[in-house]
Specification:
The complex is a heterodimer.
Chain A (H helix, E strand, L loop, with lengths): L4 E6 L3 H12 L4 E4 L11 E5 L2 E4 L10 H6 L9 E3 L3 E4 L5 E4 L3 H11 L1 H25 L11 H30 L2 H6 L5 H9 L14 H9 L2 E2 L2 E2 L3 E3 L4 H13 L3 E3 L4 E7 L2 E7 L4 E9 L3 H7 L8 H9 L6 E8 L18 E4 L3 H12 L8 E5 L1 H4 L9 E8 L11 H18 L3 H4 E7 L1 H8 L35 E3 L13 H14 L1
Helix pairs in contact in A: 1-9, 1-17, 3-4, 4-5, 5-8, 7-12
Chain B lengths: L5 E6 L3 H12 L4 E4 L12 E4 L2 E3 L11 H6 L14 E6 L2 E5 L3 H9 L3 H24 L12 H16 L2 H10 L4 H8 L3 H8 L15 H7 L21 H12 L3 E3 L4 E7 L2 E7 L4 E9 L3 H7 L8 H8 L7 E8 L17 E3 L4 H12 L8 E5 L14 E8 L13 H18 L7 E7 L1 H8 L35 E3 L13 H16 L1
Parallel strand pairs in B: 1-2, 1-10, 2-7, 5-12, 10-16
Antiparallel strand pairs in B: 3-4, 5-6, 8-9, 9-10, 11-14, 11-15, 12-13, 13-14
Helix pairs in contact in B: 1-10, 1-16, 3-4, 4-6
The chains are: A alpha/beta, B alpha/beta.
């Protein structure tokens, strides 16, 4: 079989597409193979119900690296991010806590609850900004191996050391705390108003199997603070046409550079001869040759499904076995006949153009976590709600709306396993909890799509339904992601590479893994 | 105040205060050691429970004394007990698993329950020893100074790096990976037998308000294994001479080296003048002048309660105020008419080791859940030991003492509730019930019972929030972050005031470790002056 392509990318998720675009841009004849009929992996827009379009899984964007937007000229290919300006947390006493696009307005709002916190929030915001800036260079760097003595690793470590020293002791210590503390403990040092702490710490638990009181959650908080749109930090956005349109823009960029994309093409396995990747075999039996194969799938699939683990070193296979997925979130997509009416802010106000966070207290979140710890979905889950049709009317028929509800916790390993009945019970728990804050919701629902971690795994392939291709826990980050010694996108099989979110820096619609992998591939070939 | 009669006042006569004072006396400083209680020994001191019955309620783990300190101060009588009775876990009433330190023998014991786990045990204990061994190196030197800029300061860092690399590639990565890990994940990676996992994991949450599923408990497990002999999974072997052997030896050394010791002397405040320490003032109003003060009380008490805030920068005070203590352990001691009988126990010697009554990680985690919400666990994790098997003179002939530790019993209770007699009795009741479940007729042998809630530990031992750690062993509160970021080397912003208690590097259980390093720092600063 002759090599028809220089590179084949397995999986048309956003990281795979980014990698393909960079490879094609460097003149490599590149093919992307996607199992599903749509490109995008977990960043897809689908018309789930006639006339109602949903960002089925991933629903907001903030982490997409600016260098990728620049290098691939994504705006020219259709990238159009609309700001998501507010977050409103309904409180149990009928009041609410809001943050708005205008900092002064947010300050006045915070003052209403706690003048002390309003002051602290200014300093806190500045510190988090600096912290995000401090971490930013690391997001764009191939993790050096601290146990290696090779000149490139030593140079990388030195560079890292210098970077940390340049932060100065105060920021270095703050970073150390963020990397090791729980988000609740970290926020306790700053704030007193519990719903504020809860809402802020909610971003520290998204996608992980941690509660706000679990150490390690402060890092996830920071990870979500690193969002950046047009240089503005902590800016969350919604993509016109849903997150699938981001994948489309990246795919168009890749095609413009000559890459080919094929959907409905499930890769069965990677062909390996004499320790070298030679192409892929599709489920249809077709074989396609290539001198480089890049897997955008998660580490479990990359190392134990696409290739025979027997061809891999034992330490690597063992590391992949220990690597934690533990999907913890679900998604409920609702097609609505009208707008929800929140008791705390009645009517169709500006709050419906932003996010609504169901996180009334730290204890509420922690109890939601407790349910999941013991194998149940949260009776009263944390929810992050957006109404994309409020920002982009084309997502729903006129006068109607789509509502995206990110829900946590829904453990992949549910006691007794996920069944259709349990899935609907989970959906009911979500709607019922929502109805506590927006009583008219039940009467508005035209259609309901409930996605459990089990569904996410089945549809997207993400192991255990983990949206980050593996938990963002300290022991699974940087040179440990996914596995020590194999954190530089390379694999022990010659010409076989990894580029998914299971590699550094991982998680969110960031694209950094795909870019770094492509750059490593190009460097190794040069 | 006239000319000072002392060069240094050391506050607190626990292991750290005694070691610090002895070191300063050895260096020729006129050293005064003051202690609030009448007896020496701090957490390690023996307490009379009932006429003829004595115990060290906080001495369940005797701790590790760095050999270099013992050698330098010529501490004597520090042999360990030879009995190899490490850890027993009650699988279910009547069924026990005893794990000796000898990995081969432990492996045999495990085989009955899980051949898989038995096969992995030796490799697991070897790994723990290796990883704890690196901490052992870290704990004998001042905390690495991450903001160091002079080559002189960087050299020790390079030395550490070299030792770190000497661990070998895989173990080094394993070390970095294990610190942030939860003991739950660590043990799930290795074993399948629930009681075995729970018995080991309890070391990762010892005096820690988090449960076994919490990140960083991997580090706590290793911390409590520093200096333990190979094969250990929980704590260090007891001293031959008695539970208080270390502090007794340190007290002898301090006296030999010319330290003046005053007991019953409670500090009211630390006198500061022009950013310099001038001495201490006692509760009775007495002023003691000294050019330097080394406090082994916890950093928060020392800096927040004893120093006038005008001398400290608000940000520094904020950081000190943020130190997490969160005591969560209660202790119940029993004076017994006879030894408890645990059906299934191979030899009564096992009772001289640690006996853990929690059969699974889930029950351990559930016990921790209560503390999260400010409640006392109704089924706390209980572990106990019977010290009279090793030291019969702690009780009248034929009688025994049992010391039980119960977790979680948080200092901070929900809705402003306090540790009153009812709560204390309820805790003791659930501990007694847990022991009774494993040892029928236990209750009928109790002659006397004493309960220490975290509030009692605070009042009786001066432990803030009842935390023996003087500051939770979170990854954000160790090394150069202990007690507060950037002040990991025992000095404070007040010239002449030093911190040397467990709340400073290298932390609790390292007998005299913090005190020694603080004294060294003080001497170094004096030399420079």
């Amino acid at each position: 079989m002759s090599a028809r392509y220089d590179a084949i990318v397995v999986g048309g998720g956003h990281n795979g597409l980014v990698a393909a675009a960079y490879l094609a841009r460097a003149g490599r004849k590149t093919l992307v193979l996607e199992r599903r009929p749509v490109l995008g992996g977990a960043a897809v827009t689908e018309e789930v119900f006639p006339g109602f379009k949903f960002s089925v899984f991933s629903y907001v964007v903030s982490l997409l690296r600016p260098e990728i937007i620049r290098d691939l000229e994504l705006p020219r290919h259709g990238l159009q991010i609309l700001p998501l300006e507010s977050t409103v947390t309904p409180l149990d006493n009928g009041d609410y806590l809001a943050s708005w696009a205008d900092p002064d307005e947010t300050r006045r709002e915070l003052c209403r609850h706690s003048p002390r916190d309003a002051d602290a929030a200014v300093v806190f915001g500045r510190l988090m900004h600096h912290m995000a800036m401090a971490v930013k260079p690391i997001l764009g760097m191939v993790p050096p191996d601290p146990a290696s003595l090779s000149p490139s690793d030593l140079a990388g470590l030195l560079k890292l050391g210098r970077h940390f020293r340049s932060l100065g002791p105060e920021r270095f210590h703050a970073l150390h705390k963020l990397m090791t503390m729980s988000s609740a403990d970290y926020l306790d040092e700053w704030f007193e108003f519990d719903p504020l702490k809860a809402t802020k710490s909610a971003s520290g638990i998204i996608g992980t199997f941690l509660g706000p009181r679990s150490p390690g959650s402060a890092y996830v908080l920071l990870h979500h603070y690193m969002g950046e749109i047009d240089g503005a930090f902590r800016a969350w956005g919604f993509h016109k046409g849903g997150t699938g349109a981001i994948s489309e823009a990246i795919a168009r960029a890749a095609r413009a550079h000559g890459a080919e994309t094929r959907t409905g093409a499930a890769v069965e396995r990677v062909l390996v001869r004499n320790g070298r990747a030679t192409g892929v075999a599709l489920a249809s039996g077709e074989e396609i040759g290539a001198s480089i194969v890049v897997s955008g799938l998660d580490p479990r699939l990359t190392f134990t499904r696409l290739v025979d683990p027997k061809d891999l070193p034992e330490a690597l296979v063992d590391g992949v076995r220990r690597y934690k997925f533990r999907g913890s979130s679900g998604k409920v997509n609702l097609a609505l006949a009208g707008l929800p009416d929140f008791t705390c802010l009645p009517g169709a106000g500006p709050h419906l153009r932003g996010a609504v966070s169901i996180s009334p207290s730290l204890e509420y979140l922690e109890r939601a976590y407790d349910d999941a710890k013991y194998g149940e979905f949260s009776r009263h889950p944390y929810m992050d709600i957006v109404l994309p049709s409020m920002i982009d009317p084309e997502m729903a028929p006129p006068g109607k709306h789509v509502m995206s509800v990110f829900v946590q916790y829904a453990p992949y390993h549910l006691n007794g396993g996920w069944t259709p009945t349990r899935r609907e019970a989970f959906g009911d728990a979500v709607v019922k909890t929502l109805a506590r804050y927006a009583p008219n919701i039940e009467s508005l629902i035209l259609h309901r799509q409930v996605l459990t971690p089990d569904d996410i795994e089945r549809i997207t392939g993400l192991s255990e339904g983990n949206i980050f291709q593996g938990e963002l826990a300290l022991q699974q980050l940087f040179f440990l992601r996914p596995v020590p010694e194999w954190a530089k996108y390379r694999t022990p099989i010659h010409g076989y590479w990894q580029c998914g979110a299971g590699t550094h820096p991982g998680g969110g619609i960031m694209g950094a893994s795909g870019r770094l992998a492509a750059l490593q591939i190009l460097r190794s070939a040069a | 105040m006239t000319s000072a009669a002392h060069d240094v006042v050391v506050i607190g006569a626990g292991a750290n205060g005694l070691v610090a004072a002895a070191r300063l006396g050895q260096a020729g400083l006129r050293t005064l050691l003051i202690e609030r209680e009448e007896g020496l020994g701090g957490q390690g001191r023996l307490v009379e429970l009932a006429p003829g019955f004595r115990a060290a309620p906080l001495g369940l783990d005797p701790g590790w004394a760095p050999a270099a300190i013992a050698r330098a101060l010529r501490l004597d009588g520090l042999e360990r007990h030879g009995a190899d009775t490490a850890l027993t876990v009650v699988v279910e009433p009547g069924l026990l698993l005893t794990l000796p330190r000898d990995a081969g023998k432990a492996s045999e014991a495990i085989r009955t329950y899980s051949p898989n786990d038995a096969g992995k045990w030796p490799a697991f204990t070897t790994l723990l020893s290796k990883l704890a061994g690196f901490l052992e190196v870290l704990y004998q030197t001042p905390a690495p100074d991450v903001s160091a800029s002079s080559p002189g300061d960087l050299l020790p860092m390079l030395g550490l790096l070299r030792k770190f690399r000497a661990l070998g590639r895989r173990d080094m990565i394993e070390f970095l990976r294990t610190l942030p890990l939860s003991v739950w994940e660590l043990l799930d990676d290795w074993f399948e037998h629930a009681p075995l996992k729970a018995a080991v994991a309890a070391g990762g949450v010892q005096d820690h308000r988090q449960g076994p599923r919490s990140g960083g408990t991997g580090f706590v497990l290793l911390h409590h294994l520093v200096g333990a002999p190979a094969g250990s999974v929980r704590g260090r072997p007891p001293w031959r001479a008695g539970p208080a052997a270390f502090t007794e030896a340190a007290a002898r050394a301090a006296k030999r080296l010319g330290v003046t010791v005053r007991t019953g002397a409670e500090v009211s405040r630390i006198d500061v003048r022009n950013d310099r320490v001038a001495g201490v003032v006692l509760k009775n109003g007495e002023e003691i002048a000294a050019g330097a003060v080394l406090s082994t009380a916890d950093p928060a008490t020392t800096l927040l309660d004893w120093v006038d805030p005008v001398w400290l920068d608000p940000e520094f005070l904020h950081a000190v105020g943020n130190i997490r203590h969160r005591g969560c352990t209660g202790v119940v001691t029993y004076a017994l008419e006879a030894l408890p009988e645990l059906p299934g126990l191979a030899s009564k010697e096992a009772l001289a080791g640690l006996v853990s009554l929690t059969p699974s990680l889930t029950s351990l985690e559930r016990a921790a859940d209560a503390a999260k919400y400010g409640r006392v666990s109704e089924s706390p994790h209980v572990e106990f030991t019977v010290p009279t098997l090793l030291w019969p003179d702690l009780a009248p002939a034929g009688k025994h003492v049992l010391v039980a530790r119960a977790q979680y019993a948080p200092y901070w209770l929900r809705d402003g509730a306090t540790w009153d007699a009812t709560r204390r009795d309820a805790l003791a009741g659930s501990v007694t019930a847990a022991i009774e479940a494993a040892a029928p007729c236990f209750q009928s042998r109790i002659a006397h019972r004493t309960t220490w809630s975290p509030l009692d530990l605070e009042e009786r031992y001066g432990l803030r929030e009842g935390a023996p750690s003087q500051g939770e062993l979170g990854l954000d509160q160790i090394l150069f972050m202990r007690p507060v970021p950037g002040w990991g080397r025992h000095a404070t912003p007040i010239s002449g005031l030093y911190l040397g208690g467990a709340g400073t590097h290298p932390g609790p259980g390292i007998l005299g470790g913090p005190g020694w390093l603080a004294a060294q720092r003080l001497l170094q600063d004096r030399g420079r002056r």
